[in-house]
Amino acid sequence: xxxxxxxxxxxxxxxxxxxxxxxxxxxxxxxxxxxxxxxxxxxxxxxxxxxxxxxxxxxxxxxxxxxxxxxxxxxxxxxxxxxxxxxxxxxxxxxxxxxxxxxxxxxxxxxxxxxxxxxxxxxxxxxxxxxxxxxxxxxxxxxxxxxxxxxxxxxxxxxxxxxxxxxxxxxxxxxxxxxxxxxxxxxxxxxxxxxxxxxxxxxxxxxxxxxxxxxxxxxxxxxxxxxxxxxxxxxxxxxxxxxxxxxxxxxxxxxxxxxxxxxxxxxxxxxxxxxxxxxxxxxxxxxxxxxxxxxxxxxxxxxxxxxxxxxxxxxxxxxxxxxxxxxxxxxxxxxxxxxxxxxxxxxxxxxxxxxxxxxxxxxxxxxxxxxxxxxxxxxxxxxxxxxxxxxxxxxxxxxxxxxxxxxxxxxxxxxxxxxxxxxxxxxxxxxxxxxxxxxxxxxxxxxxxxxxxxxxxxxxxxxxxxxxxxxxxxxxxxxxxxxxxxxxxxxxxxxxxxxxxxxxxxxxxxxxx
Length: 513
Prior knowledge:
By secondary structure, this protein is mainly alpha-helical.
């Protein structure tokens, strides 16, 4: 599990940085403008289709059932897999086809603050991006097979190819074909999804003995739908978090959607680097432990995943909070993205960073529910929180601008995760949380002094270094990062080596090999 976590973590880190590079190219060319707003808003409908078909959870719902079926009857397991694949393909084609036809009214719905001209262009972007969901949803079935076989290399490459295609298409296609604005980036979305999410996993599974049959019915399909249905119907605040930023951001004015999207992109880098990597890598092991009835080992595995992730994520988050201004300046400022945009996006980033540890807990504890075959509880809790959040966004968030929307977004996620953890403890006991709070508090205590020093160093560099703002920001990041590392690692090494054990332990094992 440790190797898988490192591999997926490296992939996610590279993917997040490629995502930042993509957004850097977008911000340089289009800044926080209406054109960029339309591009980001174009993902609302495709993402909702993905949620409605539980696209992001195909692996979660399929792995436990397939694992058991392959143990009992491999031929019948292939028949079950084929049924799931063809239904996923058909459902995705149907929904994306309907969305393609009704793109204009859907565009008006997802961006109620846009003008008629902006809505028409948004519909055009939407029609280009929509086919990507067919590749994502059907390709997720192949990815589930790879995860089941504990083959993590191809899934690790998928996001890299996806982001790389968006960047390449956005930069190159306008020079080859007649297109304007951000159309090239939209085409890159579909091209990247087709290559990275579908073709590459299909080739890997095919070479490893894929037996795909033309079959639509199987006795396990009912069980699969029972598990997947809550994920399809339950639209939680976590799933819709980014969509709310886009929908309600469109009511604030030009540039708000872009600023919120840029800030969220950076805040999600540590989440993917630690939380998502640990969750994806640990899930097959958690599912196997549930299947074998090893509750004690399950609790211990879950506890280690939570504790290790939080001990890593808390110092990273605090340092990023300290250098939020230099971060936004270095990554985005330049071209059409000016100093005012940097200043406007910095507090948005800080608000979103405050709940990064909570996001990490959500990713892991959510997998714990799914490993038990319980998709209903997270869906019900998430849907209730979402229903309560919508009027708050409309009546309080929008009048308070982008900052109000970012604040409500963070509060909703915290409430959801708090309720989810409370329900877990009531049903399964709190053994998985033993020592997690203590280790998190310890990491916070050791990181806070380093955070203050890093903040002071970053502010000084931004104000006194004699270079351009972007170079000053680079100096601030480098100097504050070095000071933070020294002021955190050295005291922790001496007084609380447990905080560094996730890294040191892995280094010792690598050296032993």
